[in-house]
């Protein structure tokens, strides 16, 4: 039940962010699905006791792979799907908390929250890089195998 609630609460912001970015109507549901699935992966790995950066990395990999799938299926650029899908993973809460602690002159706690923001942001960036690398190598492998199969008599 908790996972369904988490999915819905991350599906809605991703869908709404797609509306804000004027994404085509036919890809609004995939935008929400990508954001919901990415958050479920992140949430489940955090509940299993994993570090938030590793959980965010795995969620970002899920975003990347789902974006490639839906972009090919819907014939749209993957970036249109990945931007709304990343919304649930953005570390807005820790960033706000860091600023609040800095204003309250609690600099040690503020620095801890800033480090969390940096870790999570880095995990998002690395997740997209690794996902793009895996996808390009996989596509290259499939293309090469198709070419070698068609050349044989």
List the helices and strands and how they pair.
Blueprint: H1 2-20, H2 28-47, H3 52-74, H4 78-86, H5 92-103, H6 107-151
Describe the model.
- With 153 residues, this protein is mainly alpha-helical.
- Helices cover 84% and strands 0% of the residues.
- It is built from 6 helices and no strands.
- The protein has helices spanning 2-20, 28-47, 52-74, 78-86, 92-103, 107-151.
- Helix 5 runs antiparallel to helix 6.
- The longest helix has 45 residues, at 107-151.
- The radius of gyration is 18 Å and the shape is globular.
- It starts with a helix and ends with a helix.
- The mean pLDDT is 91.
Keywords summarizing the entry:
single chain, 153 residues, mainly alpha, 6 helices, globular
Summarize the structure.
This protein is an all-alpha fold and 153 residues long. Helix content is 84%, strand content 0%.
Structural category is mainly alpha
**General shape:** globular
Radius of gyration: 18 Å
Biggest sheet statistics: none
Question: Count of DSSP E strands?
Answer: 0
Fraction of residues in β-strands: under 5%
Low-confidence stretches: none
- Order of secondary-structure elements: HHHHHH
Q: What is the average of the pLDDT values?
A: 91
Question: Termini separation (Å)?
Answer: 56 Å
Oligomeric grouping of the chains: single chain
Count of helical stretches: 6
Percent helix range: over 70%
């Amino acid at each position: 039940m908790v996972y369904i609630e988490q999915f819905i609460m991350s599906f809605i912001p991703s869908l709404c962010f797609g509306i804000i970015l004027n994404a085509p109507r036919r890809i609004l549901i995939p935008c929400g699905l990508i954001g919901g699935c990415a958050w479920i992966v992140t949430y489940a790995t955090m509940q299993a006791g994993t570090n938030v950066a590793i959980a965010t990395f795995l969620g970002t990999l899920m975003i990347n792979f789902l974006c490639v799938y839906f972009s090919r299926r819907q014939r749209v650029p993957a970036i249109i799907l990945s931007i709304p899908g990343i919304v649930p993973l953005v570390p807005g809460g820790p960033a706000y908390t860091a600023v609040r602690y800095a204003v309250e002159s609690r600099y040690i706690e503020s620095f801890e929250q800033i480090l969390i923001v940096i870790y999570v942001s880095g995990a998002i960036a690395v997740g997209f890089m690794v996902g793009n690398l895996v996808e390009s190598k996989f596509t290259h492998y499939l293309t090469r195998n198709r070419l070698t199969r068609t050349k044989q008599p």
